[in-house]
Design brief:
It is a single chain. By secondary structure, the chain is an all-alpha fold. It has one domain: Growth Hormone, Chain: A. The protein is 78% helix and 1% strand. It has 19 helices and two strands. Strands 1-2 form a two-stranded antiparallel sheet. Helix 3 packs parallel to helix 5, helix 3 packs antiparallel against helix 18 and helix 5 packs across helix 17. The chain is globular, with a radius of gyration of 21 Å.
Length: 452
């Protein structure tokens, strides 16, 4: 999966030097709405910051891989375990999402109380154990029930990565633009993780290996990223912002923060909720689109197109990274939602007319994912780390991320019902309307920022 672009991405992560300790006098202004808190961060040791950023990046790679791989694995389990109770299949995907929600909330609390470093060590450990148990334990007639339990444990681990990695990357210096670039660069590894899941699946499907072995390899591979960086997470140091805040006798409680930053929290949580309805709903809906376009009926054909879609979407992360400092996250998110809405509505309204134009329709569909990445996929991850103060940063980030996973569960459920009742075009139109609502929420609730 890693090519020269991945090497460049890693080099970018490790080459961002910290800003020396100086009084924070960099004005972060909100000309459109109220000011958000100035983020006091100043870790002066380059090696410390680079280690934390590397751990956070690989943890995000692991998260995306593990959440994406289960769809392909379940198809192979169904093929190789025909005697198992298939009624339990929906529980497998549901448990991954439920575990992620639990992990985002739990590790949000742990990250603010025990620290970002300890939280990251725990969440990586759970991810590794969950991935390995998913590959080893399921057997015979209870394969789906056991797999669902293992994926819940894994989900708790990968869910914790969201708030912890964002805060760890953001608390590196007193330069808000540099911090934001680190957060976005860390999150970009989710794109590589998702692409890796499709590529590895394709390679193994083309091999002569029995599918009963292939799905176990795919699930076990989800433990490798965590194993690789677990030692680095253990020996890394806590962020300076967290340590400094521990001596603060007037730390804000999470309930006080929710009242103080009510509008910003509505913006971060509802923006993430609405985005994940479209994002995860359409990821699961991709095989239906491909069937309509290319009559892709086999798993190999579907995976091929999934690889292509992910490859088209991947540069969106790096366009977001490039634009940080030139645009604030509010406007990155608004333009992403706006373009997604236009493309979804155009595809939905003219779906039948576009069907003969296969290349055009597929390109339009792939570009909804590109503008997800150059838009709300990156910004929803990054905004909570930028907007909320140190003492509640991980908790409010975790709560916002949990709202996103609730949206993912809703999208995964309702899109199938809409398609069955009203057809593919209705699903695309609903995605466009949800994107418009995301644009409106962002405009009203997220403050503008001007960096200087």
């Amino acid at each position: 999966m890693y090519d020269s672009r991945n090497t460049k991405s890693s080099a970018l992560l490790l080459s961002m030097p910290p800003v020396p300790d100086v009084p924070l006098e960099i004005a972060v202004q909100a000309p459109c709405m109220e000011d958000s808190p100035l983020l006091k961060r100043s870790d002066s040791i380059s090696e410390t910051i680079n280690r934390r950023v590397l751990v956070s990046a690989v943890a995000n790679f692991s998260t995306a891989y593990n959440l994406a791989i289960i769809g392909s694995a379940v198809l192979m389990v169904k093929e190789t375990s025909p005697g198992s109770d298939v009624s339990a299949i929906p529980a497998v995907s549901a448990c991954s999402l439920l575990g992620a929600i639990a992990g985002q909330l739990l590790f949000g609390y742990i990250g603010d109380v025990l620290g970002r470093r300890k939280g990251m060590v725990l969440t990586l450990t759970l991810s590794v154990i969950g991935a390995l148990l998913s590959a080893i334990l399921p057997f015979d007639g209870s394969v789906y029930a056991i797999l669902a339990a293992c994926r819940f444990l894994l989900g708790v681990g990968v869910g914790g990565v969201y708030p912890l990695s964002a805060a760890s990357a953001a608390e590196g210096s007193s330069d808000p633009v540099l911090n934001n670039k680190r957060v976005a660069a860390v999150f970009s590894f989710q794109g590589w993780g998702q692409l890796a899941s499709f590529l590895l699946t394709f390679v193994l499907l083309k091999s002569s290996l029995n599918h009963a072995i292939v799905w176990r390899i795919l699930l076990a591979a989800g433990a490798l990223p965590g194993i690789i960086v677990l030692h680095e997470a253990i020996v890394s140091k806590e962020t300076g912002a967290f340590l400094q805040n521990q001596a603060n006798p007037n730390k804000m409680s999470v309930w006080t923060a929710l009242k103080t930053y009510e509008r910003q929290f509505i913006g971060t949580s509802m923006g993430w909720f609405l985005f994940d309805i479209t994002f995860y709903g359409n990821i699961l809906f991709t095989p239906v689109i491909l069937q309509d376009l290319y009559h892709a009926s086999t798993m190999v054909e579907t995976i091929q197109f999934s690889v292509l879609t992910s490859a088209i979407a991947l540069p969106g992360y790096y366009l977001s990274l490039y634009m940080i400092g030139k645009m604030d996250f509010k406007h990155i998110q608004m333009q992403g939602f706006a373009i997604m809405a236009i493309i979804f509505l155009a595809m939905g309204i003219f779906y039948e007319a576009l069907l003969p134009l296969k290349a055009l329709l597929f390109t339009m569909y792939a570009f909804t994912f590109f503008f997800s990445n150059f838009g709300p996929n990156v910004s929803t991850f990054s905004l909570p780390a930028e907007l909320f103060p140190t003492e509640v940063r991980v908790q409010l980030n975790g709560m916002s991320a949990a709202a996103g996973k609730v949206g993912a569960a809703i999208g995964a459920y309702i899109y199938g019902l809409i398609e069955a009742s009203y057809g593919v075009s209705a699903v695309l139109i609903v995605s466009g309307l949800v994107s418009l609502l995301g644009f409106a929420i962002t405009y009203v609730c997220i403050p503008c920022k001007q960096y200087r």
